[in-house]
UniProtKB/TrEMBL annotation:
Site residues by UniProt (Transition state stabilizer): 430
Domain Aminopeptidase N-like N-terminal: 46-235
Cofactor binding notes: Binds 1 zinc ion per subunit.
InterPro entries per record: Aminopeptidase_N-like_N, Aminopeptidase_N-like_N_sf, ERAP1-like_C_dom, M1_APN-typ, Peptidase_M1, Peptidase_M1_aminopeptidases, Peptidase_M1_dom, Peptidase_M4/M1_CTD_sf
Co-factor requirement: Zn(2+)
Signal peptide residues on this chain, from the entry's feature table: 1-27
Membrane topology field: Lipid-anchor; GPI-anchor
Pfam families per the UniProt record, alphabetical: ERAP1_C (PF11838), Peptidase_M1 (PF01433), Peptidase_M1_N (PF17900)
Domain of life per record: Eukaryota
Family: Belongs to the peptidase M1 family.
Protein name stated in the entry: Aminopeptidase
Active site: 345 (proton acceptor)
Length: 900
């Protein structure tokens, strides 16, 4: 019954959302001739099936390929032209036939390079409801491309001078069109028959199960795949390789789960197969629906050749190899990484693949559900990993950071061009959407999203008549979240047992001259020591566009109340000072009277609200002082995130920086003493990560920790271990920051030899060694430029790497930007380096406060679209405003803290 209830709530929520985003393809009028006024297809015709055949010679290191695509088409509106997408393919022949197989004259075809349209101009006008037609196109193309998109090549080395090549696809968002002509829009779903020719010593995999293999002679074979479910072009996928696999076949019903990698890494795939099995069965049970095919493949691609991180291709999911590789000694923290990324992509096999938004504006629908359920279903499939608790430290924190500026977009945001569609794949689409969906799911489980409960809330509007329609729909409630940018700030004050609430949009700094008009339907939850029935579920809904809302909570004079204690609502809370001081007094007296998530919420809101106002740091430090007794991962992870940000902003203030470092060491020293530095087999991920945080924050102030860090470096110099845990990484980084003169001469070469050692097959070990290079500061440039280093590490690891370089090792920001400028000047606009440039520039911009740094950043950004410069200028403006408002008050508060 409990599972059914959850499914019903999820289904209700999804149906409400999908009602807002219809998926029916309708024709759009087109401008006569060639003057298209939109990047959207006119949809006067739509595909109903594709038969795609590719002939490849990757096994012979020939990277050109030929293709033939036959597209069955229906006509929706009278037209004398067929418009679809194509770019990069050279079309060698094009034919058009009716349902009887008779050719229809084609006058010409044209390519619109800007809109990436292929326009086929016919010798007659097609009428709707006149049967099906077939457009057949022969084309040539190449996988020798360096943007890691479309159909492209990767490789791996098997021995000195021996390299194997493979071909794989990455079509999301708009790169199916770069590999074969197609109707490349997310709202267009149809079936595919895929046939692939490759060498007999290679094999092909695709979305659907393999149906048969035919030998062709000349050392080649034809693989034919079953017809796919109806799906979008961006989910079409194939792999041509000599990879090997580990597989498990489930029964009742039959489902073959396999993970593929280069042959030498197959031994690292067992955990990914098991995690896949457990997650997909948990998902099927939760939603009461079976996975739609009888096989699903995971494919591990060399990290340097896979910019996407992971991709939910239906039945053929691709990942960075470090994301799904696992050795038993790697620790539970690595298990969390494997389970959550598999969980995200497998959730897509239901949300997004089965149920897809019509246009990229609603990308947040499928990405938000996938982000939410990778934690929530992961907590069912792998309860030992406690993933549900990690939602607060993961997506919730990421969303609040991303959603606090003036320039942030709303969840639903319309755009059309290739570059602007790519920018939609951000923390708003993933993390904020997950937070809002999670909030609504809690509300639906509670059963309060019905008119009577909502109007009960309206009656509590203080001293003001609320004018609303007689009935209120889910669309109106959810629209207040999906159509508005930003995160709400709920202010609460107390008058006896009466609690009074107002709302406004939270901005980290630099509020606009004209106040925001944003207003939301906000579910208010709370908890006291004697009443926790509403600690996760809404006690009432705070309506938009009212000046103040009153709610009565029976409390004693000394009893404290926490609001949004488990971060189930997507908003920050600002307590009036007397309430805040009472909470801080209680948490310092006995922090265990509050749940870990409640402590985390109080830390994060208090610090961020103080920074947005430029003051009240005495209260912040009084709150953080309790961390000396904190032993739970959730509040420490949130505190760690905030403390590192303050370290960043104070890094150019010598006095403030030293004081803050002393404060951080004081807070974390007991954590370091409690957990030590050595990984222990069988520990939870929470303990592993707490130990890693303690090493990062407090090792520089501990003689024994520094000695063990140096020992880790000496051990690395002697021999690279088969695997490194996250604690090893933190300890090694501390040691690398303390290199003596002799080590500076020899260690870079030793690390370089280790990274080039072909016998080092563990992708995680290779990844950690590579990340550790940044801990050498300027010495790392003996191995790799700053730019190449930042491009080669993952997007999720980049913030930590920049913090180490700029804050801990005091590398000049100008040095890093100049390296980036030099690297980009050598790359064309289609390279993966160039495409990822803005992401790195934005990360670096978070640290820019000096005028020369700002000028250099703008110089590099100017080679991109104007939006890049605009975003950087806004970030720099935020930095300068933070310095103006917070640098002196924070430094003074730290001075008084140590003088007390």
């Amino acid at each position: 019954m409990k599972t059914f209830r959850k499914f019903a709530c999820s289904a209700l929520l999804l149906s409400a959302l999908l009602a807002v985003t219809p998926s029916v393809v309708r024709a759009r009028s087109i401008v006569p001739g060639r003057a298209f006024d939109t990047y959207r297809l006119p949809n006067t015709t739509v595909p109903t099936h594709y038969t795609l055949r590719l002939d490849t010679d990757i096994h012979r290191e020939i990277f050109d390929y030929t293709g033939n695509v036959q597209i069955t088409i229906n006509v929706l509106e009278a037209t004398d032209q067929i418009v679809l997408h194509s770019t990069r393919s050279e079309i060698t022949q094009l034919q058009f036939r009716n349902s009887a197989g008779l050719k229809i004259a084609v006058k010409n075809f044209e390519l619109d390079e800007d809109k990436e349209f292929l326009v086929v101009i016919l010798g007659t006008t097609l009428q709707p409801n006149t049967g099906t037609y077939t457009l057949e196109i022969d084309f040539t193309n190449s996988i020798a491309r360096n943007d890691q998109a479309g159909f492209y090549r990767s490789s791996y080395d098997v021995a000195e001078g021996v390299r194997r090549y493979l071909g794989l696809t990455q079509f999301e968002s708009v790169d199916a069109r770069t590999s074969f002509p197609c109707y490349d829009e997310p709202g267009i779903k149809t079936t595919y028959d895929i046939l692939i020719v490759c060498g007999t010593n290679y094999h092909a995999r695709s979305n659907a199960p393999l149906r048969g293999i035919q030998l062709l002679g000349g050392g080649k074979k034809l693989s034919t795949f079953a017809t796919t479910p109806r799906m979008q072009t961006y989910l079409v996928a194939w792999l041509i390789s000599d990879f090997e696999y580990e597989r498990e076949v489930l029964t009742d019903p039959q489902l073959a789960i396999a993970s593929w990698s280069k042959p030498s890494s197959v031994n690292l795939l067992s955990y990914s197969v098991d995690a896949s099995k457990r997650f997909i069965r948990a998902m099927e049970e939760y939603f009461g629906q079976r996975y739609s095919m009888n096989k699903i493949d995971n494919v591990a691609i060399k990290d340097q050749d896979y910019a996407a991180g992971a991709m939910e291709n239906w039945g053929l999911v691709t990942y960075k190899e470090s994301a799904i590789s696992y050795e038993p000694d790697d620790g539970e923290a690595r298990q969390i990484g494997v389970v959550t990324i598999i969980g995200h992509e497998f959730t897509h096999q239901f949300f997004g693949n089965l149920l897809a938004p019509k246009w990229w504006s609603y990308l947040w629908l499928n990405e938000g559900f996938a982000r939410l359920y990778q934690y929530y279903l992961g907590s069912i499939s792998h309860p030992e990993l406690q993933l549900r608790e990690r939602f607060v430290t993961g997506p919730f924190q990421a969303a609040l950071r991303a959603d606090n500026s003036l320039t942030v977009r709303p969840m639903t945001y319309y755009t059309e061009t290739r570059s602007s569609i790519g920018r939609l794949f951000d923390s708003i689409a993933y993390d904020k959407a997950a937070c809002v969906l999670r909030m609504m799911n809690y509300a639906l489980e509670h059963g309060v999203v019905v008119d009577s409960n909502l109007f009960d809330s309206l009656e509590q509007a203080a001293k003001e008549d609320a004018v609303l329609p007689i009935s209120l729909s889910m669309h109106e409630i959810f629209g207040s979240w999906s159509n508005q940018a930003g995160v709400p700030l709920v202010k609460v004050r107390r008058d006896g047992n009466e609690y009074l609430f107002t709302q406004e949009r939270y901005i980290s700094n630099d509020p606009p001259e004209v106040p925001f008009e944003n207003s939301w339907w906000i579910p208010i939850s709370f908890s006291t020591l004697t009443d926790n029935q509403f600690e996760k579920l809404p006690a009432f809904w705070m309506p938009p566009n009212v000046s103040e809302v009153s709610y009565t909570i029976e409390t004693t004079q000394d009893e404290v109340v926490t609001f949004n204690p488990h971060s189930t609502g997507y908003y920050r809370v600002e307590y009036e000072e007397s309430m805040l001081r009472a909470l801080i007094e209680r948490i310092n007296k006995d922090h265990t009277t509050f749940e870990p998530a409640t402590r985390a919420r109080l830390i994060d809101d208090t610090i961020n609200i103080a920074q947005s106002r430029g003051g009240n740091y005495e209260v912040v430090l009084q709150l953080l002082n309790y961390l000396q007794r904190e032993t739970d991962y959730v509040p420490w992870a949130v505190a760690y995130d905030n403390l590192r940000y303050m370290q960043n902003m104070l890094r150019s203030n010598e006095k403030g920086s030293k004081l803050l470092q002393s404060f951080v060491e004081k807070m974390a020293s007991s954590l370091l003493e409690r957990y030590g530095v050595n990984h222990r087999t069988g520990e939870s991920a929470a303990v592993e990560e707490l130990r890693s945080i303690a090493i990062d924050l407090a090792c520089s102030g501990s003689q024994s920790c520094r000695e063990k860090a140096n020992a880790a470096v000496h051990s690395l110099a002697r021999k690279v271990k088969n695997h490194y845990t996250i604690e090893d990484e933190a300890l090694l980084c501390q040691g690398l920051q303390q290199l003596d003169a002799e080590q500076r001469k020899t260690l870079p070469d030793q690390i370089s030899r280790a990274l080039n050692d072909k016998s080092l097959d563990n992708p995680t070990t290779r990844q950690i060694l590579h990340q550790s290079m940044g801990c050498m500061g300027m010495d790392m440039t003996k191995l790799q430029s700053f730019a190449k280093y930042l491009f080669d590490i993952s997007e999720s690891d980049r913030p930590k790497a920049l913090h180490r370089l700029l804050v801990e090792l005091k590398v000049s920001l100008g040095e890093i930007v100049e390296s980036l400028q030099s690297e980009l000047s050598q790359r064309n606009s289609n390279s993966i380096y160039y495409k990822n440039g803005p992401k790195i520039l934005f990360e670096i911009a978070r640290y820019a406060t000096d005028s020369s740094e700002i000028e250099l950043l703008n110089s590099v950004a100017s080679s991109y679209d104007p939006w890049v410069v605009s975003e950087i200028k806004q970030q720099v403006k935020n930095n300068l405003r933070w310095m103006e408002w917070n640098e002196e008050p924070l430094t003074d508060a730290l001075t008084r803290f140590f003088d007390a």
